[in-house]
Amino acid sequence: MSFEVVYTSVRRGLRTGAKGFCTVAATEGIPRALHEKLESLSGYRHSEAAAGGAPPVNHSHLIVRVQRKIYHVVSRIADAGIDCSGRTNKIAHHLALTSSETAQYPHGPVSLFTDDGFWCESWDDDPEELPPRNLPSGHASTSTDFDTWESVFGDAGWAGMLGEAAVNGMKPVSIIVPHTDSTIDLLNEALQLVPPELRWKLCFSTYFSRLAPGTQCHWRFVLDGTGEARRLRARSLGALVDPIGSAGELSDSNPFVQAARECQPELVHSSATSESRRAPPAAESTGGRHSRRRRRRPVEARPRPVTAANPFDYNEEDFVDEERNNASADSSSGRRGARSQNRRTGLWLVLGLFGAVIAVLVFFAVQKLS
């Protein structure tokens, strides 16, 4: 089941006593942990770099783990003018989908943003609980060209860097853009180079400012003139696409670069799919002879931590096993602590009784002498 949260600054929020920046609308029955997680993803930076133009809108897709479930969070976060106290305001509309629900959108999360009537851009009503409603209609882009990349970066081939990084291990790429008016178009065009079965594994942000705890962001569009853009130019930990000086040159032999330049993204889909499905190499043959030596029992693999770089690499069973192991460890630790506490309590009782006996004997001895 999907859940929604709308977060902005108001005089009275949905929760009793809430005001200022808080939730004004949420789906009935939303789990509390998920509700709090979506609120924490509502950050927005009012950038001076956008002065004179339209305030940036952050369209994002993140994968989060809440308790035993994995959610795909598709969000629209934007400037909302001035609030009732005279401060700058923002509005965040989050939609959390389960993995089964994402199957309704084979073209990926970016297709959900085509339904403008679904996303909340302002809030002037009273707080309310939202009944479960129909999901947004997702329409695929019919364009197969890379004109936006050609216009912004002078070479459509730069889109190939994003496609190649996504297919080859979901490596992070930062893209510095001169303005945010075209980021959704840049994103939509670059996604054409990613096979459809990988698009829901790709996390992105069209107005990236910081990485939220417990999340990963593979494609980070950064507005030029911001502190984040300056830090990237000083030291980028991953690939960087910069309109005023991208490091290195594009290789003409790179199939992703050629696919973008020739506007034929389908050329890399088959090769990317076969590469991702390639079976691991078989074990070395022993020449038909079987060793009689008793093999060691394989060590059971421990669950991988949930703070991994790519949260979608793990299925929900891994998370369940991890929580069970943690619960078992906590229970064992609690039992050991209880036993230790019981021993200390018993020792003090024995010492107390012994002291009382001595006091009684001393009392009678004094009475007898007197």
TrEMBL record:
<feature type="transmembrane region" description="Helical">
    <location>
        <begin position="345"/>
        <end position="366"/>
    </location>
</feature>
<feature type="region of interest" description="Disordered">
    <location>
        <begin position="262"/>
        <end position="340"/>
    </location>
</feature>
<dbReference type="Pfam" id="PF20013">
    <property type="entry name" value="GAP1-N2"/>
</dbReference>
<feature type="domain" description="GTPase-associated protein 1 middle">
    <location>
        <begin position="149"/>
        <end position="242"/>
    </location>
</feature>
<dbReference type="InterPro" id="IPR045402">
    <property type="entry name" value="GAP1-N2"/>
</dbReference>
<protein>
    <submittedName>
        <fullName>Uncharacterized protein</fullName>
    </submittedName>
</protein>
<feature type="compositionally biased region" description="Low complexity">
    <location>
        <begin position="326"/>
        <end position="335"/>
    </location>
</feature>
<feature type="domain" description="GTPase-associated protein 1 N-terminal">
    <location>
        <begin position="1"/>
        <end position="133"/>
    </location>
</feature>
<keyword id="KW-0812">Transmembrane</keyword>
<dbReference type="Pfam" id="PF20014">
    <property type="entry name" value="GAP1-M"/>
</dbReference>
<keyword id="KW-0472">Membrane</keyword>
<keyword id="KW-1133">Transmembrane helix</keyword>
<dbReference type="InterPro" id="IPR045401">
    <property type="entry name" value="GAP1-M"/>
</dbReference>
